[in-house]
């Protein structure tokens, strides 16, 4: 049975945040979580051009996307415990610095192998931004409040998938795909500067963990023995896999199969992002009436149905482009309802090690997403291949939800932590 509890974290020195400052912090947290999507999505219109320029295959170029996701996954496993031990700010700023250096070298990458290795480093750097942002949310909020904030952050994050391919397409109008990485360098430098000037330390010294390597191993071991937590991060990861099947396959489907230009593809991609963002914001209203686990379960059931329609229409060709776009956008909207709620439920179970818990969550999300990207390429990078991986991801997420998480048995806390920061 759900119950309420008010938690007051240790204050250092005990100063509540004014509303205006809280808004600025939330905005910068959104920019941090946008760094990963910008890194992934901005070069999507360039994939066919990279394939030709580096004289390689579509599958090989898609592996550069996989490399970014692998870097995001392993980077979060590293940065999460560091942020629990040393605070949030320095691991964050160091990670973004790695991203900046990798972006600079991507500009001069001579072949697809080097580009892929540098994309792994980009992912490692972006991981710091992603995991620290999530940990800061958990430092300040819990449960329904965290789910609402994740939804608001998704609004900021959602701007990235809309703008990134459009920016990438515009850059390609006056330079090559290498210019995209010049823009990414500038973006990362800007985010690093804003973060250094705006974000406070949200983890007081007395709450930091200092168990070293063994302590980190114990934390991960404890997390992995929590069946519900593991199930929830798998649900989040499989929802992310559906999203990345779309991300990795869409440029080939819409540009090669349907003959769109890079700019037309950017507009289509933006349409999907609008559906995703709209769902995350509608989630805030849904939370006034339903629990996060109820919304998550309903979205997975609906997403499975829309995914099946997408696969059938893609395989038969019924409806042409419209027959692919409508169910695809509806699946993305359902993913937009899963993504705020599954992480919020997972992180609410382990506030004592929020950085490590957020790291494992992010690693699973990006790791499973990394598997989805090359699967689309191996199946032929067409609409049927993309639809099959999207549908398979939704089936798997629903099975994990019912068999492992068992959402009808979950207990949530309605409380909101008092927002405070350490100085």
Automatic annotation (TrEMBL):
It comes from the Bacteria. PROSITE patterns: MFS, SUGAR_TRANSPORT_1. One of its GO terms (molecular function) is xenobiotic transmembrane transporter activity. Residues 25-410 form the Major facilitator superfamily (MFS) profile domain. Its main location: membrane. It is found in: Cell membrane. It is a multi-pass membrane protein. The chain crosses the membrane at residues 21-40, 60-80, 92-114, 120-141, 153-174, 180-199, 228-247, 267-287, 299-322, 328-347, 359-379, 385-405. Keywords: Cell membrane, Membrane, Transmembrane, Transmembrane helix, Transport. Belongs to the major facilitator superfamily. Bcr/CmlA family. This is MFS transporter, DHA1 family, bicyclomycin/chloramphenicol resistance protein. It comes from Actinoplanes derwentensis.
């Amino acid at each position: 049975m759900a119950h309420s509890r008010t938690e007051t974290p240790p204050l250092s020195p005990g100063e509540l945040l004014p509303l205006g400052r809280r808004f600025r912090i939330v905005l910068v947290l959104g920019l941090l979580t946008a760094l990963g999507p910008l890194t992934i999505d901005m070069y999507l219109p360039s994939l066919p051009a990279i394939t030709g320029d580096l004289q390689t295959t579509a599958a090989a170029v898609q592996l550069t996307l996989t490399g970014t996701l692998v870097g995001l996954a392993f980077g979060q496993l590293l940065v999460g415990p560091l942020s629990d031990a040393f605070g949030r700010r320095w691991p964050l700023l160091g990670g973004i610095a790695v991203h900046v250096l990798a972006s600079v070298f991507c500009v001069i990458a001579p072949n697809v192998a080097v580009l892929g290795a540098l994309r792994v480093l980009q992912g490692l750097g972006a991981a710091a931004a992603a995991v620290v942002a999530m940990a800061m949310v958990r430092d300040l909020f819990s449960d329904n409040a965290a789910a609402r904030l994740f939804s608001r952050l998704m609004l900021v994050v959602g701007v990235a998938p809309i703008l990134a391919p459009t920016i990438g397409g515009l850059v390609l109008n006056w330079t090559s795909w290498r210019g995209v990485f010049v823009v990414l360098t500038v973006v990362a430098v800007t985010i690093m500067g804003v973060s250094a000037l705006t974000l406070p330390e949200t983890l007081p010294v007395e709450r930091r963990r200092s168990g070293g390597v063994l302590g980190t191993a114990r934390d991960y071991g404890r997390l992995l023995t929590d069946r519900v937590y593991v199930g929830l991060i798998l649900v989040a990861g499989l929802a992310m896999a559906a999203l990345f099947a779309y991300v990795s396959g869409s440029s080939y489907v819409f540009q090669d199969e349907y003959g769109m230009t890079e700019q037309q593809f950017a507009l289509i991609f933006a349409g999907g992002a609008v559906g995703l963002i709209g769902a995350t914001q509608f989630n805030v209203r849904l939370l006034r009436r339903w629990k996060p686990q109820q919304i998550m379960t309903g979205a997975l059931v609906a997403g499975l149905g829309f995914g099946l329609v997408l696969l059938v229409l893609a395989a038969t060709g019924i409806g042409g482009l419209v027959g692919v776009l409508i169910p695809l956008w509806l699946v993305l909207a359902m993913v937009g309802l899963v993504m705020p709620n599954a992480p919020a439920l997972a992180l609410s179970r382990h506030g004592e090690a929020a950085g490590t818990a957020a790291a494992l969550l992010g690693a699973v999300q990006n790791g499973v997403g990394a598997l989805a990207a090359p699967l689309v390429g191996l199946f032929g990078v067409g609409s049927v291949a993309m639809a099959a991986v999207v549908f398979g991801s939704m089936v798997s997420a629903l099975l994990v939800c019912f068999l492992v998480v068992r959402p009808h048995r979950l207990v949530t806390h309605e409380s909101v932590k008092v927002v405070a920061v350490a100085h």
